[in-house]
Design goal:
With 980 residues, this protein is mostly helical. It is 63% helix and 5% strand. The longest helix is centred in the C-terminal third of the chain and has 45 residues, at 895-939. The radius of gyration is 48 Å and the shape is elongated.
Length: 980
């Protein structure tokens, strides 16, 4: 056997430590006996071979393979442990969602039947290995610890493993079970106790286990990172959804118009540019909306008729309006103020019972309770949204249209109810605000006042009657409505109710008096139920007693609706011509004023001006593409060097050049350049490109102002749009990584191979040194005062401090004259010498003062020497080529020039890359941001009013509004005359 092993593996077997791993390898060669004797390979053989464990040496017995079987089963068990442990770490919620997939992914445990042999296979396998043991008995000692393993123990372990598997699956089905890890944490100890396998033998398995745990932790971290990314994406999606919500609503309106046009085309009707015919009441409602937006204070011509519904809180005015509209369209509450803002309801006749808000295209089917509930909820949301700043009521009008069969055509305004006391949850000025709002609407001389009085309370407790009397003392436009007469009949005598309806109880006067029943106090009653109840009540009521004064036409909501509509249209016909004439006069006056002030300009409103400004801004973005590549490179390179020059001199060139050794110069430069290019340089380059793009765009806008066609009315708008777009605009993210790669590659080149590039580098170095030298000269002029020529020619004198600095400078100049290659710092002896020399002259200074003076003096001296090297380098290229390339050395010190050549090359490739990005991508991305800002501003009326100001704009807006109202009035009058 030893010979076989020697021939198979190339070495002799002399001890158990050498033989054991060989036997283990042999045990992995063929598992045909474990697979039923068919000669097939184990399905996990490849995995087992890849994960061979470096077990510690043992003395091997013929039953050594028993331990191998245990190791194989342990490997499978540990794999199962990682699956369960990973699921537990994932969290309860993730485990519940993924459990079905995880269970399907569990390994098929039927392979254990193949791995764990039956009795016959066990004897065959042990017999074959016993023969191997006899062949190597001379060199191998048998470990007696494994003799105790029997088939009964194996069956016992098998049952234990099945039980553990069931427990693991059951634990995985729970939401959170910290005890999942418990059975597996002691697995190695339990196996060691059962089978006598030492912990050293399981060391490799523990390593695999640790890898599995680290992998699970890594998976958990990735899961958390993914969750964070999902949350960020959700927030971004919400922002995008809010950003484009208005655009979607606009598309919905356009889609509806297109559908209407399609239906007309489908029925072979020719459009001919004609608009869809609107009903008379709809046209009148549009006029009212225009007037409300034109003059909210009713100080000019907004005196067109409308029905104003007023009354005390909970008097039933909203119920009266709903009975007239034949739908429960308003939210209801028990004693709570529900009407918090004026609601304008336009009633018109139509084949279907529908409701729609004037600023929305959605229609609510009033025959469906679900849509009625949605309508009421929308009304409540709009009311609460209109109440801001701690107020309880609002003056913002909510406009809606209700169409249906049998509805009377009119416009009604429902106002908040009059209150007597302000509760703690109301604003302090709520009572006064409601009174002021009610007077505001009733002060219209053509408003029909529908005064609602609760018949179930004493008339003396009414607050609304006095208010109505003040606004309409003669009662020429007031209609009195007594509600809840069913309750009033039970609480009061019929004679008192008759006196109210006859106009003999209240001091106020009215055109007519009506009694209605608006329900039985049940919120869920439908309009049909309420009307039936009202009809039955008035048929049996004592109010219809023959001796009474109440007439049948004074009761029921139906009669009230007919009377109000008749009065409404009568007043409309009486006043509409006067209002149209008034707007004609207003229009004439505004047109005359426009011609006197702006005779050569057309009346353009804010919307038209905004569209014109939008086109000009976008045209300037397009003009960015007309800038030449050369101009882009010049601008970008200038911006880039402005950002890099200080760092190049102070952090790279000066520390390396002042080191005093050419070798250390090159080493230090290489290190600093690589760090610079790997960290700060790409970001600085991107900033330069961003600023160059911004600079060029602003220059285009400034040039546009010099054009003879420039209109300064757009300047504020353009500036605001450009500032906002540039604030939002960011350079493409991947540009930094791309620039880092090309910059690092460019800096690797250290050999100047072209005379032209050498000359450019010399000029670049020379100009940079001169720039820094000039800055140093300016600093020294401030520190040491005027020069001799300035003192003599310009009569300038040095201060005492400057004279003191001059004395110190004189001593420092001596040091530089004696040693032109002096290092950048002064030694202690030199500082002492300078201080003592100054003391002899009667000047006392400290060492820090001397160092402060030394810094600019030495800096100027060093820069002057660098400038001399630049002059010498102008004609040193051929010397550099012949000597440096051949021997790697040059008689002249040209390291400065080579450094600036490398920086110049980096700037060239960076500028070229940035120029390509600007032309190919960044200009379009800026254009996209500009369009987004313009689209947002186009929907924001406040922004337009803020940015487009002046007499020209306000006068044009007023003229266009008056012209539009006057035209609508004329169209309405023509249609009204046709229906007479």
């Amino acid at each position: 056997m030893a010979q076989i092993l020697r021939g198979r593996f190339g070495f002799s077997v002399k001890s158990s430590r050498a033989v054991r791993p060989l036997v283990l390898n042999l045990s992995r060669v063929n598992f045909s006996t474990l697979n039923g004797g068919h000669g097939t390979r184990h399905p996990h053989r490849k995995l087992l071979l890849q994960q061979r464990l470096p077990l510690t040496p043992l003395l091997v017995t013929p039953r050594r393979t028993y331990a191998m079987i245990v190791a194989r089963v342990l490997r499978g068990a540990l794999k199962l442990r990682y699956l369960v442990l990973g699921g537990a770490i994932g969290g309860g919620m993730t485990l519940n969602k993924k459990y079905e997939e995880w269970r399907d992914g569990l390994p098929d445990m039927k392979w254990l039947d193949d791995v764990l042999p039956d009795s016959e296979q066990w004897h065959k396998f042990s017999k074959s290995l016993m023969s191997v043991g006899e062949a190597v008995r001379d060199s191998i000692e048998i470990d007696p610890r494994l003799k105790k393993i029997s088939e009964e123990k194996l069956a016992e372990w098998r049952a234990w493993f099945d039980n553990r598997l069931d427990n693991a699956i059951e634990a995985a089905e729970t939401t959170e079970n910290p005890a999942i890890e418990g059975p597996f944490q002691t697995l190695s100890d339990l196996i060691s106790d059962m089978y006598g396998v030492t912990k050293d033998e399981l060391k490799a398995m523990h390593l695999v286990e640790a890898k599995g745990v680290s992998a699970a932790e890594e998976a958990h971290r990735k899961h958390q990172s993914m969750q964070q990314q999902i949350e960020e994406l959700q927030a971004e999606m919400m922002a995008v959804q809010l950003k484009y919500q208005k655009e979607l609503e606009k598309l919905e309106r356009d889609n509806k118009n297109l559908r209407q046009q399609y239906l007309i085309l489908k029925t072979n009707r020719k459009l001919g540019g004609k608009k869809i015919k609107k009903s008379l009441i709809d046209m009148y409602s549009e006029v009212l909306d225009e007037l409300s937006g034109y003059d909210t204070n009713y100080t000019m011509a907004d005196h067109l008729p409308r029905v104003v519904v007023v009354g005390d809180q909970s008097s039933g005015k909203t119920s009266v309006l709903e009975s007239i509209a034949q739908a429960r369209i308003f939210p209801r509450g028990s004693g709570e103020m529900m009407t918090r803002a004026p609601v304008k309801v336009t009633l018109s006749e139509g084949p279907y019972h529908l409701a729609k808000f004037n600023d929305s295209e959605r229609e609510y089917d009033l025959t469906k309770e679900s849509e009625l509930a949605e309508l009421r909820r929308e009304v409540e949301l709009r009311m609460r949204h209109s109440v801001r700043g701690g107020r309880t009521v609002s003056t913002e009008t909510i406009s809606m249209t209700v169409k249906g069969p049998g509805l009377q055509r009119m416009v009604l305004i429902d106002l908040p109810g009059i209150i007597s006391t302000v509760t703690v949850d109301m604003a302090a000025d709520t009572k006064d605000s409601i009174h002021q709002m009610t007077r505001h609407y009733m002060s219209n001389p053509n408003a029909i006042i529908l005064c609602i009085q609760d018949g179930s309370v004493d008339a003396e407790r009414s607050n609304v009657t006095d208010l109505v009397t003040q606004c309409d003392p003669h009662g020429k436009r007031t209609i009195f409505v007594l509600t809840k007469v069913d309750l009033a009949e039970e609480l009061a005598e019929p004679d008192r109710i008759r006196r109210i309806l006859a106009g003999k109880l209240f001091p106020m006067k009215a055109l007519g008096y009506f009694a209605v029943v608006t329900g039985r106090g049940r919120k869920d009653d439908s309009i049909e139920t309420i009307r039936d109840y009202e009809e039955r009540f008035f048929k049996t009521s004592k109010l219809f007693h023959r001796s009474g004064t109440v007439m049948p036409h004074q009761v029921s909501t139906r009669n009230l609706s007919l009377a109000v509509a008749d009065r409404f249209w009568r007043m409309v016909r009486e006043t509409i011509e006067q209002q149209a004439d008034a707007f004609k006069v207003t229009r004439f006056n505004l047109e005359t004023e426009w011609k006197n002030n702006f005779p050569r300009l057309r009346e353009s409103g804010r919307d038209e001006l905004f569209e014109k400004a939008k086109g000009e801004v976008l045209d300037e973005v397009v003009n960015l593409s007309q800038i030449s590549s050369k101009k882009w490179e010049e601008v970008i390179q200038s911006q880039l060097w402005d950002k890099l020059s200080n760092y190049v001199f102070e952090n790279i060139y000066l520390p390396a050049a002042q080191s005093g050794s050419p070798n250390s110069f090159n080493t230090m430069v290489d290190i600093k350049l690589r760090q610079w290019a790997d960290q700060a340089l790409p970001a600085r380059a991107v900033e330069s490109g961003y600023e160059a793009l911004q600079k060029e765009f602003l220059e285009l806008l400034e040039q546009a102002k010099k054009s003879p066609d420039h209109d300064d009315i757009f300047d504020n708008l353009k500036a605001a749009v450009v500032d906002e777009a540039i604030r939002r605009y960011t350079w493409e993210d991947k540009a930094t990584d791309m620039l880092r790669v090309i910059q690092l590659n460019t800096l690797e080149d250290r050999v100047v191979s072209d005379k032209g590039e050498w000359d450019q580098a010399v000029r670049f170095f020379e100009a940079s040194v001169k720039e820094k030298l000039q800055l140093t000269e300016n600093t020294m002029a401030e520190m040491f005062g005027p020069s001799a020529w300035q003192r003599w020619a310009h009569w300038k004198y040095a201060t005492d401090e400057q004279q003191k600095r001059r004395n110190v400078k004189g001593e420092l100049d001596k040091i530089l004259v004696s040693d032109s290659k002096h290092p950048p710092t002064l030694s202690y002896d030199e500082l002492t010498t300078v201080r003592k020399n100054l003391q002899r002259g009667g000047l006392e200074v400290d060492t820090e003062y001397i160092r402060e003076t030394w810094y600019p003096v030495y800096r100027r001296h060093f820069l002057q020497q660098a400038l001399l090297r630049a002059y010498d380098g102008r004609k040193a290229y051929y010397l550099y080529v012949t000597q440096a390339r051949d021997r790697g050395d040059c008689a002249l010190n040209v390291n400065d020039i080579i450094l600036f050549w490398r920086i110049q090359q980096v700037m060239k490739v960076t500028t070229n890359a940035l120029r390509q990005q600007v032309i190919n991508r960044e200009a379009r991305r800026l254009d996209k941001e500009m369009k987004a800002v313009l689209d947002e501003y186009s929907e924001d009326e406040d922004k337009k009013q803020q940015l487009l100001t002046g007499k020209r704009v306000s006068l044009a807006e007023e003229l266009l509004r008056v012209r539009k109202i006057q035209e609508k009035l004329e169209v309405f009058i023509n249609q009204l005359n046709k229906e007479k």
